[in-house]
Design goal:
Elements (H helix, E strand, L loop, with lengths): L1 E6 L7 H15 E2 L10 E7 L11 H9 L3 H5 L3 H7 L40 E7 L2 E8 L11 E7 L9 H10 L3 E2 L7
Parallel strand pairs: 1-3, 2-7
Antiparallel strand pairs: 3-4, 5-6
């Protein structure tokens, strides 16, 4: 089992390049005993994915009105992450549960108000939980809306997963590898 948390950049301009480059780069840097990232039996990937509602397809004010009326499914039809996954460009074989909560981004800090800046950003579900593998059942998927310290609302998900214990890992080495920015090779940190 692997747990991945990430914040994918929102700074590149081309949607196809932005997400594919980040995703491909990241997955190529993880190795497990000379196997690929995708050889793990279960992968949970969560964080600020920075996928947005396609602004050329849905005006921000229209999106806000639809969300106010609880029409999340209609707004999600314009979600960049779902589009990229459906087209097979990113997160191959990953699943996301039904989204039944308000968008997690873009709020004025310390409020529940949508972005009131000049940019008038469209609300979006930037913060996501995805999974891949067998024997995984998602029990719940929610946004924790009472937190207001950021322009994002955190998400949480509860899973039931059957796992098998293989080996202990050396967490100190794992932490050092991560902090030093070295290529992550799990064969170096697995206790034999």
């Amino acid at each position: 089992m692997v747990l991945v948390t990430s914040e994918i950049t929102s700074k590149l301009n081309s949607t196809n390049i932005k997400y594919k480059v980040n995703y491909t780069y990241f997955t190529s840097k993880i190795k497990s005993c000379d196997s690929s990232f995708f050889s793990f039996s279960q992968i949970f990937w969560f964080g600020d994915m920075n996928y947005r509602i396609n602004p050329s397809a849905l005006d921000p004010d229209k999106a806000k009105s639809m969300i106010k009326n609880g029409r999340y499914a209609d707004v999600l039809k314009f979600d960049q992450l779902r589009d990229q996954m459906r087209e097979g460009k990113v997160f191959h074989g990953f699943t996301e549960g039904p989204i039944t909560f308000r968008p997690t981004y873009k709020y004025d800090v310390n409020t529940d108000n949508w972005d009131s800046s000049e940019k008038n950003r469209s609300p979006a579900w930037c913060d996501r939980v995805l999974w891949r593998g067998d024997n995984i059942v998602q029990i719940d998927y929610v946004s924790v809306g009472q937190y207001k310290l950021s322009d994002h609302k955190p998400v949480a998900s509860l899973f039931e997963a059957k796992v098998r214990h293989i080996r202990k890992i050396n967490l100190i080495h794992l932490l050092w590898t991560y902090l030093s920015g070295q290529m992550l090779n799990l064969s170096q940190i697995v206790s034999r």
